[in-house]
Every structure is written in C-alpha cells, then in structure tokens.
Specification:
It is built from three helices and four strands, in the order βαβββαα. The chain is of the alpha+beta class and 97 residues long. The chain is globular and about 35 Å long.
Amino acid sequence: MTYVIAEPCVNVIDQACVAVCPVDCIHFEEGVDRMLYIDPNECIDCGACEPECPVQAIFPEESVPPAWTGYTEVNALWYRDPAAARRLVDELRPESP
C-alpha cells in the first residue's frame, strides 16, 4: 500500500508534504507539472504527508475517493513516463479556458 496525491493538489502544488516525507518520495518538475506525485515504490506508508496537506489531497491508496481513483495510476505513471502522467492529469482535470 502507498499514499496517493489526488485532484485537490492540481494547480496548488503546496510542498508542505515534501518537507515531512522521511524518504523523499514526493516529486514534481517545477514549471512543468500541475501537481505533486508520490512514488509508490519508495513510499513507506508512514502517513506523515497526509496531515500536512492543506487541501486534503493525500490519501492511503485504499481510501482514495471514487471520483479520484484515476490519480492512483497518475502517481505511479509519473515515475515511468512523466509526459504520459501529465497528459492523464490534463484529461482528468482540464485547464480552464
């Protein structure tokens, strides 16, 4: 099990969760990404990030709200293919015109 960053982080990118992660498994590319991503292979399931998120975007994998389950795939995908993850974020939460 891992933690997942979901839709409330999109276009927010508050990094309070990064500061408390003991294994440095939360990443993004500044100026490119619209959200932060948790590496499911590095996350140790400590939960330190969850209470630090000011927009309540972080969930244990099994507790991601149904409307945001696609973000589980997005988080894992970013570590294999960042461009594909970014496209998926854009599909899940299009930019406002």
